[in-house]
Amino acid sequence: MPENISPTERTRVVREAHRGAYDRQTIDKILDEGYECHVGFAVDGQPYVIPTLFARVGDAIYFHGSAASRMLRGAAAGVPVCVTVTLTDGLVLARSVFNHSMNYRSVVALGAATLVDSPAEKLEALHAFTEKILPGRWEDARQPNEKELKATSILKLPLTEVSAKIRSGPVQDDEEDYALQVWAGIVPLHLQAEAPIRDERCDPGIPTPGYAAKYSR
């Protein structure tokens, strides 16, 4: 894959164009940090946006759900999709309410998702879902059986029409507002894991695995 992805008319960032990013390193980093994506699609003229887990493997993303899902049936039939991932990094508190904002990183990917039929590729995607969230968990837990694999549909979307948009940095007020006696600044936001809670039916003799006890992002 090229280091940069040429934006199309659909993926080029128009508003605040300077926030657009089209290099694979930036796009991949956002996708790899995100837990869930939102998949937008339309069925019979009705738009839907559905949240679901996803994982990036190479130059494609995989997302999954029940084999009976309207989203997955539609996407597998060739319905165009829009997949978005957003990370919120902070609240931007300006002196003016109008200039309040958020620091964020986001990715939008467009295209036609295809249904994954290969059992090996399906397992690879499920492995990617699991290891993305908790590295080391795949080998510890029971892996999917044939019935579970049949009940799960996985779709693949190549990262060929994709762009990122990022807002970072300090408050940006109108020049005349800097004289106002109003507190301004950034409230950083991040995900923080708490101590694991043992399932009540889990054998007390089983130690809490390190990837759960010391989990961090």
How would you portray this structure in words?
This protein has helices at residues 24-33, 70-76, 119-133, 137-140, 146-150, 210-213; strands at 20-21, 36-43, 46-57, 60-66, 80-93, 101-112, 114-115, 152-158, 161-167, 185-188. With 217 residues, the protein is α+β, with helices and mostly antiparallel strands. Strands 1, 2, 3, 4, 5, 6, 7, 8, 9 and 10 form a 10-stranded antiparallel sheet that branches. It starts with 19 loop residues before the first strand and ends with a helix. The relative contact order is 0.19.
Features:
35% strand; 10-stranded antiparallel β-sheet; 217 residues; 6 helices; alpha+beta
Provide a quick synopsis of the model.
The protein is an alpha+beta fold and 217 residues long. It has helices at 24-33, 70-76, 119-133, 137-140, 146-150, 210-213, and strands at 20-21, 36-43, 46-57, 60-66, 80-93, 101-112, 114-115, 152-158, 161-167, 185-188.
How can the largest sheet be summarized? 10 strands, antiparallel
What sort of overall outline do the alpha carbons produce when their principal axes are compared?
Answer: globular
* Tally of helical runs: 6
Mean pLDDT score: 91
Regarding quaternary structure, how should these chains be classified? single chain
Helix/strand order: EHEEEHEEEHHHEEEH
Radius of gyration: 21 Å
The span between the termini is 27 Å
As a percent range, the share of helical residues equals 10-25%
Total strand count, please?
Answer: 10
Low-confidence region ranges: none
**What is the beta-strand fraction?**
25-35%
Structural class by helix and strand composition: alpha+beta
